[in-house]
Amino acid sequence: MGFAVAGGGLVAVVAGGLLVVLSAVGRGPLARSRSAPRWRLAAGALGALVAGTAGLVLWVGAHDPHVTWFGPVDVHGPRRGDQVALTFDDGPDPRWSERVAAVLDERGVDGTFFLVGAAIDRWPEVARRLDDQGHLLGNHAYHHDSWRWLDPRYPELDRTQRTFARRLDRCPALFRPPHGQRTPFVLSRADAAGLRTVTWDVSAEDWSDSDGERVARRILAGVRPGSIVLLHDGLDGRGDAEVDRSVLLEALPLILDGLEARGLTPVRLDELLGTDGYLPPDRC
Questions:
Q1: Which residue has the higher pLDDT, 29 or 71?
Q2: Structural domain boundaries of the chain?
Q3: CB of 103 within 8 A of CB of 252?
């Protein structure tokens, strides 16, 4: 769910828009208007362009998982070597999380599950079993929605850490914001809590596809050494009967086969990034 315009592309868009504005003011109908001097028209048009550009920058910085304009974000691991990380969002889900973990366990693979705090409170036993099986657990906020990230205080982060401490006696050191949406305030809060913010560089949008083979092809087409792969064992932390993650159960063995064929080894995200997966007890 990224945005295509970033870096040099954004500069090109701004420069192109400025040329269009100047051309319109200098040669178009606006230049012939007697009721508004050219400089006022140019100033107004330029102001609108600047405001639009600022809005675009803010939108891209907040939504694109690949940009780090607002603060440090791990998008991928080292490109040297043969390791990748398979990450799963929006659980724990009582119907699907352990079935996904079973596929990984059969292949001797450890995954990383970013858990929604409210779902941990509803199904703590599922989270504990994932932990017992050796999978890494990360903070995925307390609610999985599209607006709480706009609160500068961002209490979602600490509330989820407290839930981990209460339910699992440990606190994650890795945080993934829901939908990847973040502000400088969100990133600052994560840093102050000792958490590294992680997004991804490969996604197949498996939450909106029902064809497992197609999901696997998309993942394998984009994966590289160091890739952080985004998949979903739940949806929004709901865990209700309408959540169907059978597409992932179909896709996951194909993804694992494809990684093996490419000489790529899936590991936990803390191993890929060379960092601690959990905070020291005195920080929890």
A1: 71
A2: 8-63, 83-283
A3: yes
Q: Rounded to an integer, what distance in angstroms lies between the CA atom of residue 129 and that of residue 164? A: 13
Percent of the residues in the chain that have a pLDDT greater than 70, as a whole number = 78
Give pLDDT, residue 252: 98
- 26 Cβ neighbours under 8 A, 6+ residues apart: 38
Angle separating helix axes 155-168 and 124-132, nearest 10 degrees = 70
Distance of CA 229 to the CA centre of its chain: 10
Q: Which CATH architecture has domain 83-283?
A: Alpha-Beta Barrel (3.20)
In the structure encoding, which two tokens stand for residue 199, read together? 């997004």
pTM above 0.70, yes or no: yes
User: pLDDT for 60-83, tens place per residue?
Assistant: 667 788 888 888 999 999 999 999
Predicted confidence at residue 35, as pLDDT, reads 52
**CA 27 to centroid of chain Cα atoms:** 45
Amino acid at 136: L
Q: How far apart are CA 28 and CA 38, in angstroms?
A: 11
pLDDT digits (tens, 9 = 90+) for 217-228: 999 999 999 999
- Kindly list the catalytic residues: 89, 232
Neighbouring CB atoms inside 10 A of 108's CB total 7
Say if CB 84 and CB 111 are below 8 A apart. no
Per-residue burial over 165-179, b = 16 or more CB atoms within 10 Å of its CB, e = otherwise: eebbebbbbbbbbbb
Q: Distance between CA atoms of 124 and 239, rounded to whole angstroms?
A: 12
Q: Is-contact 84 259, C-beta < 8 A?
A: yes
